[in-house]
Every structure is written in structure tokens, then in C-alpha cells.
């Protein structure tokens, strides 16, 4: 009898699920019909309904997806099980997913109906969407343009592989329509130095109709190379499957780059550039995540020889000085040896400085070589690298990535910066949770730095991790969270973002490559599907909606992000290499300035040397004890030429790269030197703001959020009519009560220019809230 009741109970639950599914499906279909009817009427009355067309498209797609997921619960369950950090009953999650997707479809339809109704009855006024002309993109200095205006491009990286890029079911205004030629690997070159004709034909015959990119996949080493060069796979990492110091690989890639440049020169399909590497890294210290994956566990003889040559040049052939620094007794430079991977305790030693600096220099030289070879046949070919941006904002420095040098080298800025809520592998709160709703540090710190290094370059994030990553996934991500992230990234410089990742075929099923690999060793792929955008209609739709809004106001956004950076934080990679927590310390000062209404800037030796110092008013030097003589001399030169430096105390700049006490101290010269004799970053901030009081924004934003810490970042720009455009982004964990005023006390009025609704000068902004305002002075 118990078995009978159990079966009846299971049958009852199944019937309930089926009934709920049918009810949600019917409800969604009715709302689709209702919205389409409303759209037809709106178009007849002259209203733009581009936004609603996207809602309809995603609604229909996700109803189709829900049906597939419902009929393939075993597969969906396996995807949840593959992603180990995701907590919960995976079988139940798979059963619940289809109706979750249907509910979210209903939600975006309800929102769409409500918004269009408000548009039609005059409650709100929307600017028509500035649609992207994917086939006629122009690359102009620091921006892409479409139809004569700046445009922010959007799409997905690793997008439903196996489908042609001309398939309008996947490449369209809704998902994005950025082309990709496909990957180039060492397999392109044969042992006899001819080219693989099949691969070459694929590239040559690829349609050239719209803007796209080409990616170098630095894996798949041919057998003939491994036979000729047994050491070729020493010192490798996940996406760099060969030793970059190997002479044969240099020859191979030189030939490939020249041929690739030749056959793609002048084509639209590379307007977003040649991506020279996918997430390169050469982490050299034992015990880190890369070490545990077997990366960089040994070095080739070529790398060791190159290091010795680097040391000879660095020490000007003075072996005695090296021995003094390293506390060794080598008789010749050829005798130099050391333990590799590096021991953690070597951090901060002269030996460790030399290795970390060399590691960065050799990596920069490799990418310089690739770019040079490309430019031999395609001199105007744009380049960037999918750089892991937290390698700058984090304290670790054994990875070989000099973000400044690589940003300066390539013709575009490139990265795959991420944001997230709490790392789902952690049970305890992270440090940022005390004040913020999500972790934005990596994105903003790295972007502000790269934009300071190369302010006139286009910025491409070729794999945005704002929606999901290995450390964070949330099935019920709010549309407001999505909007906040993409608005923030665009404000800080992003011109194109390819989100990770779209893996649905037109019939709603996961792409064949994904289905085939779900049980494979390709962990990055098999773990990515669960709780991703591929299961969240509200996320996919909002990503496109926010990009439509950003493009409709692209000129205002560009004006906001081109604002002058009056205060520059002096950055020394020398201190970052030597100190255990240098970037953590620097973040305190950065964060304190982040909410003052202007972009935070950086200055380095090269920035001071190469850029016009009129672009800033003051340099802040904080807890930067180690600098090279060259860095120190450039700061002194800046002062000699009338610059202004604020320094925490005389401990900063006091040592060279090897920890030896510097005999010189900064002198004010023709400029102004303020040594505050403090360890407190707030003291530097207050002093700097007082010093440039007349350069601060004309508009003031006051915030009350129930905490002592600000949560809303903002910027203003003149609107050309005597007023200002202003954007406000709430990164805080609570609703904020805000007050907008003029610094000079003039009366103003505010308008939400996304809706043309008037706004009082005091108002609330919800968690994840984003505003774009017009501020006008009122006549007395």
C-alpha cells in the first residue's frame, strides 16, 4: 500500500507540474499577443518599439528553451551536477527550471507591456533606440561609430559554435551581431612551411559583411614541432601551450602572423581586432591555482638562458652586485641557478624582484613580436589581448603580466574583467560586503588604470564575466544587477563587450559542442552552463535593453567618461612586485576618491614622461616604498617642471627595487611638494580635495544610506546648454537618499532623461539603481 500511495503522490506532483507549465505557457502566449497588439498600435502612432521587439524575441526563444529543458531533465540535471559549488537538490533544480524560465518570460512581458503603455499615454518619453549598423561600423580613435555616432557593441563570446555567423537566428540585434573568423593555431603551418589549405580557405572564404574579430588560440601544438623541440611544452599554461622563448615557435608564429595579416587585411571581420591570446598567464610561485593545475612547473633551457642574458644586462655584467643582492656565490652568470617553481618566502627578495620583472619583460617582448609580425603584412591591423584584469588589482605579481606595458603596446585595450556577488565557494562574507552589493573592485581599478595608460584607445572586453564566472553564479539574477554592471563598465571605458556565454541553438537545445562535452575533461565548458544566462530570460533581455539605452545616449555617455582625471594615484610596479599587499593598500586610497564625482586616474613613470601633465592637477604617492631610480627621477623631473606631488611620508620612495636605502629625497623644484607625515589615506584624500577645490565638479551629490560609507558613484559633464548631464550608479548594499545641488548654491531642476520625467533634487535610488539626469539651472 505504501508503494501505491507513493506512486500516486508522484503522479499527483507530475500532474501539478504539467498543469503549472501549461498555465504559464498560455499566460505567456497571451501576453505576447497583447504586447504585439500594443506594439502595432504604437507603431501606427509613431512610437519606437525596438525595445519591445527584443522582449518578444527573447520571450519566444525562452518558451522554446523551456520546452527543450522540460523534455531533457536528465541533461539539465547533469549540468547542475557538473558545477559543484552550486548548492541545492540538483534533480529538483532541473525539474523546476522550465517553469522558472516561463515565469521570467511572463515577468519581462509584464514589464514590457507596462512600459509601452506608459510611453503611449505620455507618462514617459523615450528616445528612439539608436540601432547598431553591424555592417558599417567605423573604428575612430577611442570609439566605434555607427551612423555617425559613438556605439557600444555587445554580443556573446563562445556563441553557439557550429552555427554560421550569418545565421540571423543567433546573430541579430537581440543577441548581438559581432562576427568571428574563428581561431588561428600553430596547426596552420605545416612542417614543410606551407600552410594548411583547409584552415586558410576557411579564413579567406569567411564572409566579410560585418564587424568582427580573430583570436589566436595558442594551443594545439603539431607533432612535428614537439619532435623537433622536446622542450616546447615546458613552462606552459592553460591557454599558452608552448614555451614562448622557444626559437622554433617564434619562427612558426612569425609565419602565421604574416600570412594571417595578409589574408585578412582591410576586412570588416577584424575591425574589433586580432586577439593575441586568451587569458595568458605565467604564474611562477608554487601552491597557487595554476601550480595545482600543473602549469609552469618547470622552465625550458631557452627561458633560463634568456633570464641569464636579462640579468647580465640588468646588472651591467656586474656579477658581484648580483651575488650581493641574491646572497649567492656564483662564479659566472652561466652558473646561475635557483629553485623553480618559486618558494612563497622569496616574495620581497632581490632574486624574486628580478624574476618577476624578467617574467613580465619576456611576456611583453613576446606580444610585441607577434604584433610586429602582423604589422609586416597588415600595418593597420588592430590588436589587443584578453588580459586577466585582476592580475593588476590583486597583490600577486608572479604571473608575467605587466598591464601597463601590454596596454601601451597593443592598438586597442583588451581584457576579460569580471564582477560578482559573493564567491559561491565561500561561506563567510567577503570584505566588500560591508558596504557594497557586489564586488566591482577588479573592474573599476583595472579599467581606470588602463584608460589612464591609453586614454585614446578603443577598449574591448572580449569575455565579460558580469553574468557568471567560475566563482559566481546566481540563477535568479535581477535585471537591475545586469543593468548596473554594464552601465558601470561602459562608463569606465568599455566600447565592446562579448559576454560569457551563449550556448543555445535555434531549436532551444544546447549547442552540439556543449552537449558532447558535458561529460568530458573540458571543465571550463562543462561547468559553465548551470545557472548561466542560457537559463535566464530576464538576464538575456536586460543585457540587450541596457545596451540599447547606452547606445541611444552614447554621446552623453562618452562625454561623461571623457571627463578629466584631476587627481592621479602614482603607481609603481616595483612596489607591487616587492610588497606582500601593495595593491590592497593602494585600493584604500582609490576607493576613498571613487565617490567624489570625477574619474580616478593613475600616473606611472611612463605616463608622466609621455602624457601632458596638464591633464591632471596633482599626483598622490601613498605607501610606495620601492621605486627604481628611473621612477624616482621622473617624479623629480615632474616637480622640476612645476608639478604638484602629495606624499604620505618619507618612507615612500625611500628604497630602490632591491630594498637599498635611497640617498636622495624629492625636492619641490619649480613645483609643489607636500609631505604630510601620515599613514592615513583619508588625510591624503582630504588634503588633495582641498588643494584642487576650484577644479571639483560644479554639481554636488550628497548621500545618506544608513551607513557611514558612500555607495553611489557619479559623474557630470556639460550638456552644451548651460546645464549638465549626470549619471549616478548605486553600488551600495542599501537604498540611498540623494540630494543634487550646485556647489555655488544656484537653484536647479532635474530630469530623468531616460524617461523625461521630472525629478526633485532630493530622491531615493534603490540598490543596483542607475540614473541618467539632465540638470538645468532655474531662472530666478
From TrEMBL:
Chain segments annotated as transmembrane: none
Signal peptide: 1-21
Keyword Coiled coil: yes
Coiled-coil segments on the chain, per record: 18-45
UniProt KW keywords: Coiled coil, Signal
InterPro entries listed in its UniProt record: Class_I_gatase-like, GH
Protein name (database record): Beta-galactosidase
Organism listed in the record: Zobellia uliginosa
Amino acid at each position: 500500500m505504501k508503494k501505491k500511495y507513493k506512486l500516486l503522490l508522484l503522479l499527483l506532483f507530475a500532474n501539478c507540474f504539467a498543469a503549472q507549465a501549461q498555465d504559464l505557457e498560455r499566460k505567456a502566449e497571451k501576453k505576447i499577443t497583447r504586447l504585439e497588439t500594443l506594439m502595432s498600435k504604437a507603431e501606427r502612432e509613431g512610437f519606437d518599439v525596438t525595445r519591445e521587439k527584443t522582449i518578444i524575441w527573447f520571450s519566444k526563444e525562452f518558451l522554446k528553451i523551456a520546452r527543450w529543458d522540460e523534455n531533457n531533465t536528465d541533461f539539465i540535471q547533469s549540468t547542475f551536477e557538473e558545477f559543484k559549488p552550486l548548492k541545492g537538490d540538483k534533480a529538483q533544480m532541473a525539474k523546476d527550471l522550465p517553469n522558472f524560465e516561463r515565469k521570467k518570460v511572463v515577468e519581462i512581458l509584464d514589464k514590457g507591456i507596462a512600459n509601452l503603455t506608459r510611453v503611449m499615454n505620455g507618462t514617459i518619453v523615450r528616445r528612439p533606440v539608436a540601432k547598431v549598423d553591424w555592417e558599417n561600423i567605423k573604428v575612430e580613435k577611442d570609439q566605434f561609430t555607427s551612423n555617425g555616432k559613438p556605439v557600444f557593441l555587445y554580443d556573446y563570446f563562445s556563441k553557439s559554435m557550429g552555427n554560421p555567423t550569418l545565421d540571423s537566428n543567433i546573430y541579430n540585434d537581440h543577441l548581438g551581431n559581432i562576427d568571428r573568423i574563428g581561431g588561428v593555431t600553430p596547426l596552420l603551418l605545416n612542417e614543410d612551411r606551407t600552410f594548411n589549405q583547409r584552415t586558410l580557405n576557411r579564413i579567406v572564404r569567411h564572409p566579410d559583411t560585418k564587424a568582427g574579430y580573430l583570436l589566436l588560440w595558442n594551443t594545439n601544438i603539431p607533432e612535428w614541432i614537439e619532435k623537433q623541440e622536446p622542450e616546447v611544452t615546458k613552462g606552459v599554461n592553460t591557454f599558452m601551450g608552448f614555451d614562448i622563448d622557444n626559437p622554433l615557435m617564434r619562427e612558426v608564429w612569425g609565419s602565421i602572423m604574416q600570412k594571417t595579416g595578409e589574408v585578412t587585411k582591410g576586412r570588416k571581420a577584424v575591425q574589433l581586432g586580432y586577439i593575441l591570446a586568451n587569458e595568458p598567464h605565467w604564474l611562477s610561485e608554487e601552491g597557487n591555482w595554476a601550480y595545482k593545475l600543473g602549469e609552469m612547473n618547470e622552465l625550458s633551457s631557452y627561458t633560463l638562458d634568456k633570464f641569464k642574458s636579462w640579468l647580465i644586462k640588468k646588472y651591467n655584467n656586474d656579477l658581484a652586485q648580483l651575488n650581493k643582492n641574491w646572497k649567492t656565490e656564483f662564479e659566472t652568470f652561466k652558473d646561475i641557478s635557483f629553485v623553480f617553481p618559486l618558494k612563497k618566502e622569496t616574495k620581497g627578495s632581490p632574486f624574486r624582484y628580478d624574476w618577476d620583472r624578467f617574467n613580465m619583460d619576456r611576456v611583453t617582448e613576446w606580444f610585441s613580436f607577434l604584433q610586429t609580425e602582423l604589422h609586416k603584412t597588415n600595418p593597420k591591423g588592430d590588436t589587443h589581448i584578453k588580459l586577466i584584469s585582476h592580475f593588476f588589482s590583486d597583490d600577486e605579481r608572479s604571473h608575467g603580466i605587466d598591464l601597463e606595458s601590454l596596454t601601451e603596446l597593443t592598438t586597442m585595450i583588451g581584457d576579460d574583467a569580471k564582477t560578482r556577488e559573493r564567491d559561491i565557494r565561500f561561506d563567510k562574507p567577503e570584505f566588500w560586503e560591508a558596504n557594497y552589493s557586489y564586488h566591482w573592485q577588479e573592474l573599476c581599478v583595472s579599467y581606470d588604470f588602463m584608460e589612464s595608460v591609453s586614454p585614446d584607445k578603443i577598449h574591448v572586453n572580449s569575455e565579460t564575466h558580469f553574468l557568471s564566472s567560475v566563482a559566481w553564479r546566481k540563477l535568479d539574477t535581477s535585471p537591475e544587477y545586469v543593468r548596473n554592471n554594464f552601465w558601470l563598465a561602459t562608463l569606465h571605458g568599455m566600447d565592446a563587450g562579448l559576454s560569457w556565454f551563449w550556448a543555445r541553438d535555434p531549436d532551444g537545445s544546447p549547442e552540439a559542442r556543449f552537449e558532447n562535452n558535458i561529460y568530458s575533461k573540458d571543465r571550463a565548458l562543462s561547468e559553465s552552463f548551470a545557472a548561466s544566462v542560457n537559463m535566464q530570460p530576464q538576464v538575456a533581455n536586460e543585457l540587450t535593453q541596457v545596451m540599447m539605452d547606452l547606445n541611444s545616449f552614447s554621446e552623453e555617455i562618452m562625454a561623461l567618461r571623457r571627463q578629466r582625471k584631476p587627481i592621479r594615484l602614482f603607481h609603481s610596479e616595483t612596489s607591487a612586485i616587492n610588497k606582500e599587499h601593495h595593491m590592497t593598500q593602494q585600493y584604500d586610497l582609490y576607493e576613498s576618491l571613487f565617490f567624489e564625482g570625477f574619474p580616478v586616474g593613475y600616473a606611472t613613470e611612463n605616463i608622466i614622461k609621455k602624457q601632458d601633465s596638464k591633464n591632471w592637477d596633482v599626483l598622490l604617492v601613498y605607501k610606495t616604498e620601492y621605486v627604481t631610480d628611473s621612477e624616482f627621477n621622473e617624479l623629480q623631473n615632474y616637480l622640476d617642471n612645476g608639478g604638484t606631488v602629495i606624499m604620505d611620508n618619507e618612507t615612500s620612495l625611500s628604497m630602490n627595487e632591491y630594498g637599498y636605502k635611497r640617498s636622495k629625497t624629492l625636492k619641490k623644484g619649480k613645483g609643489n611638494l607636500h609631505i604630510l607625515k601620515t599613514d592615513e589615506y583619508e588625510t591624503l584624500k582630504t588634503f588633495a580635495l582641498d588643494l584642487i577645490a576650484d577644479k571639483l565638479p560644479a554639481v554636488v551629490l550628497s548621500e545618506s544610506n544608513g551607513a557611514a560609507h558612500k555607495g553611489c558613484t557619479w559623474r557630470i559633464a556639460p550638456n552644451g546648454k548651460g546645464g549638465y548631464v549626470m549619471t549616478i550608479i548605486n553600488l551600495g548594499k542599501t537604498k540611498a537618499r540623494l540630494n543634487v545641488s550646485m556647489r555655488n548654491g544656484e537653484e536647479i531642476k532635474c530630469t530623468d532623461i531616460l524617461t523625461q520625467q521630472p525629478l526633485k533634487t532630493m530622491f531615493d535610488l534603490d540598490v543596483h539603481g542607475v540614473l541618467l539626469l539632465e540638470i538645468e539651472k532655474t531662472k530666478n
